[in-house]
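pinned: reference chain
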Amino acid sequence: MESDSVKRIESIDVLRGITILVMIFVNDLAGVSGTPAWMRHVSAQADGMTFVDVVFPAFLFIVGMSMPFAIGKRLEQGGSLWEVWKHILIRTAGLLIIGVIMVNGETVSADGLINQQLLLLIGYAGVLLVWNKPHGVHKNMISRLRYAGLLFLVVFLFLYRGNDATGIIQLRTQWWGILGLIGWAYLIAAMFYIWLRNNITGLAGIVALLYCVFFADAVGFFENLTWVNSWVSIGGALGSHSAIVVSGILAGMMLRSPKSHSDRIRWAALYGILLAILAVMLHSLHDVHRVFTYNKILATPSWCLLSSAYTIWIWVIIYWLIDVKKWKDWAKMVEPAGTNALFAYILAPILMYLLELVAYLFGGYNFYYALGGSFAIGFWRSVVFAFFVTWLAGVLRKAGIWLKL
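pinned: its C-alpha cells
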C-alpha cells in the first residue's frame, strides 16, 4: 500500500493553503476599481458563479475532509466523547466570536468613542491573546495572556459603536461573517459525523437531508421558528453549507482508508463527477424556481454541489503532484497558510486596519488604497498582498504567534 490510514495527507494542507491565499487575494481585489465581473461574486439575483464564488465552499469542503483525520482519529485512539464534544464546542464558539468581530468591522461607526481602526485592533489583539498557542511559554504566562485577551475583548464589546445600532452593546451577529458560517456548518457536520462515524451510506443520506432542509426553508417550512431564524439562516448555514462539509467528510473517510494512490485518485475523480452531475441536474430546473440556480449568496444546492466537485478535482491534481510525484518545492509558498489558516485569514484585515490607522495619524493619505485606483496596478497590489500575508503568517508562526481553536 502507498500509505496507511493514519498518515497525514499533505495535499490537504496545500489545498487549504491555496484556498486561503486565493481568499485573501479576492477579498483585497474587491476594493480595486475596475475589477472585471468574472473576478467578483455574482449578485443574489444572478444565475451563475465565478471562481471567486468557489473559494468559500472550497474551504467548507476542506473542513470536512480534515474531520476524519482530527475527530475520527481522536475517537479511534480512545478519546472520550465528552472531550471530543468539548473540543468541537470550543472551536465552534471561537469561530463564531471571531466571525462576529470581523463582520462588525464592516459596519463600525466613525462616531464611536475611539478611533475605528484602533478599536478593531483592540478586538483582534484580544483574539490573538486568547487563542494564541505560543511554544516554550510557561502555562501560567499563557493563562495571564488569555486573561488579558479577555479584557481586550470586553473593552471592544462595550466601546464598539455600529452604524444604525443602539444600546450599550452595539455589536450584532449580523450574518456571522465567513468564519461564523464555517463555525455553524462545522458544528452541524460534526454532530452527524460523531453519530454515524464510519457509516458512508448514512452520511451520504445526511447530505441529501441537509439539502432538503435548504429547500424546506425556501418554501417557508421553518418560518415559525422565528427565534432560530433571527440568529442564523436555517436553509443556508445549517442546511446547504453543512451539506458541503459532510460531502467533504465523505472524501476524508476515503482518504483515511488504506488505498493505493491510483484508487484514491480514481475514487475522488468519480466522486467529483457524481457531484457535478447532481449539480447540473438540479440546475436544469432553474426556470422553475431560483433555488435551483447557481448562486453563492443564496447558498443554492446547485452551487454547493458544483463547488464541491471543483474542489475535489483540484485536490486530485494537488494530490498527484504532492503525495504521488513528491513535487513539493512549489507548495512551500502556501504552506504557512495551510498549517496556520485561521491566523493567515485574520492577519489580512489586521494589516489593513494598521495601514488605515497610520494614515489617520499622519495626514489621512492611505497609499495602499491609492494603489487600488486602477485595475492594472490594483491587481498586482492584491497579488503581492496575498503572498505577503501568507509569508508573514509563516514568519510569525516560527516566532510562536499562531491561532489554535
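why pinned: Confidence is low (pLDDT under 50) at residues 1-6. Residues 10-107+172-398 form one domain.
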